[in-house]
Write a structure and sequence with these properties.
This protein has three helices and six strands, in the order αββββββαα. A six-stranded antiparallel sheet has the order 1-2-3-4-5-6, with no helix packed on it. The radius of gyration is 34 Å and the shape is elongated.
């Protein structure tokens, strides 16, 4: 009798679980998606991309030219008025034996308020620099502050010249000066060397 009750409970549990899964699948397929289109119950949704798009934007123009010396030119234009052009080449640079990639380019697009945004940019050993009418520009440095900055720079230059002079006559100091330069290139700060 106990065995019969146990088998009945197992069968009832399996049947309830099956009904729950079937009911969940039916609810999942009958709900519309974000575009309010009912899903087809016959589709296999295991590989469906959860991201949905509403607009297909064509690529109207695409061109890429790659030269053997590493230089390139690329341009493209999309159906929603994004235009991009870029050129690049390798430039010899003292501290990098493989050279530095120099890129010049421009792109434009229409902002949500309808304004045409144009950006010109350069990326090289000095970093990335962009210009455009929409990019805020800092105010001019007041004359008094600029004079102070010029004096600070002049003092740093005089200090560097003194260190170089001392390094010419003192090989141990020259070694410390070179270690300082390497540390500074690696983002470390050793401190002043004049009194050592």
């Amino acid at each position: 009798m106990k065995v019969l009750i146990l088998i009945s409970l197992i069968a009832l549990s399996c049947h309830a679980q099956h009904q729950h899964q079937h009911q969940h699948q039916h609810q999942h397929h009958s709900h519309p998606n974000a575009n309010n289109i009912p899903r087809d119950e016959k589709l296999d949704h295991r590989h469906e991309d959860p991201r949905e798009t509403s607009t297909w934007i064509p690529i109207l123009k695409y061109n890429k030219e790659q030269s053997e010396d590493g230089s390139y030119k690329t341009e493209y234009e999309t159906g929603n008025n994004i235009v991009h052009e870029e050129t690049g080449f390798l430039k010899d640079f003292d501290t990098n034996p493989n050279g530095v990639l120099v890129q010049h380019g421009q792109y434009s697009y229409q902002s949500p308020d309808g304004t045409l945004v144009n950006v010109q940019y350069t990326a090289d050993e000095n970093g990335f620099r962009a210009t455009g009418d929409h990019i805020p520009t800092p105010p001019a440095i007041p004359e008094e502050i600029q004079k102070g900055l010029d004096q600070i720079y002049a003092g740093i230059k005089v200090q560097q010249e003194r260190l170089e002079q001392r390094a010419k006559s003192d090989p141990a100091f020259a070694k410390k000066l070179e270690e300082r330069r390497v540390a500074n290139q690696n983002g470390q700060y050793i401190g002043l060397l004049e009194n050592q």
